[in-house]
Amino acid sequence: MKTIQWFPGHMTKAMRMMEQSIPLADGILYVLDARCPAASFNNKLIKMAGNKPVLYVLNKYDLADERADALSKIIGANAVKINASNANSKRIIFEAIKRLTAEKREKSLAKGYSKIFRFMVVGVPNTGKSTVINLLAGSKRTVTGDKAGVTRGKQWIRLDGFELLDTPGTMPPAFENQKLALHLAFVGSINDDILDLDDIALELLGELYEKYPARLEERYGVTGGSKLEMLDCVCKKRGFIIKGGEYDYERAERAVIDDFRKGRLGRITLDTIGDMQGLSF
C-alpha cells in the first residue's frame, strides 16, 4: 500500500490564519473524532495554542464504543464526549467551557465587567467542528458536510457570553504514523479523491477482523481468511455480482467503507491506548 500524505495548499494558508488569530483567543476548542482521538490529534495545533486552555471535544461518540472512555481518561479532565447531532451535548460543552473559564470570569466580575471569552475551534477535517458550532449557536451558522475540507474561511460567531472562531480542518504536514493515517482515511478525514479505495477497504476489513470479528461475521459472513477473501464474502453476502458471475469489488469496497462510517457495523473505536502514548494533551 502506498504512503498516505495529504496537505493541500489551502491548509498552509489556514495555518497562517490561525497563527494570526490565536492572540485574539482566550482558549481552544479542539474537536477530535471519538473513534480515533490519537489519529485526529494534530500536535502543531496544540503547539500553536501555547499556554492557553484547551477543551478537547470528542465528537461522534455515538459511533465509538466503551474503548473510547479509556482514551478520554488519558486526555484528562478537559475532555468531553459528545454527539454534536444530539441537543443534550450543548449543555455538556457549555458546562465544560464555564469550568475552563471560571477563574478568569470571577476575576473580571470582581473588577466590575463581564468578559466575553473567545475560543478558536480547531481540528483535522471532518471531525464535526462546524456541527459543534451550529449546536452551540442553536442555528446553522456555518457550512457543514461529510466531505473533508468543507470549511475554508475565517468566521467569528457570537454566542451567549463568548465567541467562537471556526477554522478550516488542518492536517499535519506529514503523517509519521501510517497506521493513524489509515484511521483518518477510514473515518473520512482525508479526501477520498486522493486515496486508493481498494487498499483502504482491504485495510479496514483487516483491522475490523482483528478487533471486531463478530461484527464482520454478522453483516458479511466473514469468518477469516485473507483480506481479499473477506471482500469476496462481502460480495457474496451483498449480491455484488457483475456480468459473467464475477465479483463487483468496487461496490463491495465502497459498501464496507460506507457501512463503517455510517455506524452500520456498530459502535467501533479504532485507536488504542498505545496510540495515545507520546501525545501532548
**Class by helix and strand content?**
alpha/beta
Number of strands: 6
Helix segment tally: 11
Low-confidence stretches: 143-152
If strands are numbered along the chain, what order do they take across the biggest sheet?
A: 3-2-1-4-6-5
Task: Indicate the percent of residues in helices.
Answer: 40-55%
Radius of gyration: 20 Å
Describe the fold and architecture:
It is a single chain. The protein is an alpha/beta fold. It contains eleven helices and six strands. The protein has helices at 9-21, 43-49, 67-75, 88-110, 129-137, 178-187, 197-211, 213-220, 227-238, 249-261, 273-276; strands at residues 27-33, 54-59, 79-81, 117-122, 155-158, 162-166. The chain has a six-stranded mixed sheet with strand order 3-2-1-4-6-5, sandwiched between helices. α3 (67-75) links the parallel β2 and β3 (79-81). α6 (178-187) crosses α7 and α7 packs across α10. The radius of gyration is 20 Å and the shape is elongated. The model is unreliable at 143-152 (pLDDT under 50).
Q: What keywords describe this structure?
A:
elongated, alpha/beta, six-stranded mixed beta sheet, single chain
In short:
44% of the residues lie in helices and 11% in strands. It has 281 residues and is of the alpha/beta class. The longest helix has 23 residues, at 88-110.
What does the secondary structure layout of this molecule look like, with pairings?
Elements: H1 9-21, E1 27-33, H2 43-49, E2 54-59, H3 67-75, E3 79-81, H4 88-110, E4 117-122, H5 129-137, E5 155-158, E6 162-166, H6 178-187, H7 197-211, H8 213-220, H9 227-238, H10 249-261, H11 273-276
Parallel strand pairs: 1-2, 1-4, 2-3, 4-6
Antiparallel strand pairs: 5-6
